[in-house]
């Protein structure tokens, strides 16, 4: 990562550039968003796995697959070895301003 590099994408950039490239199997010039399995990671391990460079960060970005609790159900499995992930916040509509 080059010195002084800061990664602060907007919601639109995350969806229309990074996620679109990811689902289209295009390569990224720099690996700034890591792929992690949240069901195998505890929250205290996430920072080490997702950090970029050596500068401390307050926000981390990652790709993760949604794991279903039951094969035919709609509930999400949020269990980890030591506990579970708690879903917080509300869904937010993101509109394309391009």
Automatic annotation (TrEMBL):
Domain NAC: 1-98
Molecular functions (GO terms): DNA binding
UniProt keyword DNA-binding, yes or no: yes
UniProt cross-references to PROSITE patterns, sorted A to Z: NAC
Entries under InterPro entries matching the protein: NAC-dom (IPR003441), NAC_dom_sf (IPR036093)
Keywords: DNA-binding, Nucleus, Transcription, Transcription regulation
Classification via Pfam families: NAM
Gene3D superfamilies the UniProt entry points to: NAC domain (2.170.150.80)
Top-rank lineage group of the source organism: Eukaryota
One example of a Gene Ontology biological process annotation: regulation of DNA-templated transcription
The UniProt record lists the keyword Nucleus: yes
Name of the protein this chain belongs to: Protein BEARSKIN1
Organism for this UniProt entry: Noccaea caerulescens
Species classification: Eukaryota, Viridiplantae, Streptophyta, Embryophyta, Tracheophyta
